UniProtKB/TrEMBL annotation:
<dbReference type="InterPro" id="IPR001646">
    <property type="entry name" value="5peptide_repeat"/>
</dbReference>
<protein>
    <submittedName>
        <fullName>Qnr family protein</fullName>
    </submittedName>
</protein>
<dbReference type="Pfam" id="PF00805">
    <property type="entry name" value="Pentapeptide"/>
</dbReference>
<dbReference type="InterPro" id="IPR051082">
    <property type="entry name" value="Pentapeptide-BTB/POZ_domain"/>
</dbReference>
Amino acid sequence: MNLALNGKKIGRNEFTGAKIENSTFYNCDFSGTDLTGTEFIGCQFYDRESQQGGNFNRAILKDAAFKNCDLSMADFRNVTALGIEIRDCRAQGADFRGASFMNMITTRTWFCSAYITKTNLSYANFTKVVLEKCELWENRWNGAQILGATFSGSDLSGGEFASFDWRTANFTHCDLTNSELGELDVRGTDLEGVKLDNYQVIQIMERLGITIIG
């Protein structure tokens, strides 16, 4: 499927389960749509002229996939996104507040599933989002808003974390190896169970005024 749409309100089941390649969706409204299992490859959702991203507010994105897409400034607020894939995308300034990547089994038992990899998430908003034990590697997180978010147990390896406030979210048991950690201060961040590589540990110690020999 190859489309060029502008300013269109997408029907609730219009693209459910479809595979859509090399298409443009400028100023399109996907709010409330069911995109379960839908695959977008090489698609553009960001309109440079209006500087508007796609509106996915309250959409069902269960097992949906975005690959090599421009999702800059996209509105992903309140989406249902268990099993979502966002790979090799641009998603600067995207808003994920209220997004659920979670499968509730009981009120106390649940798990998360998301695959967000090799994507530019600079200045994206993940305030209070829960992304535990997810694949989140090789992303750019520069300036991302993460107040109250939980990333515990996730693979954040190979990431870039400039202008990033580690103190405002939960990163326990995360894999941070091979990442540019920016201003990570071990005195204000709970690093229980976190994986770091030798080079990162030396950098962190040097910032504390400790010299490691050998």
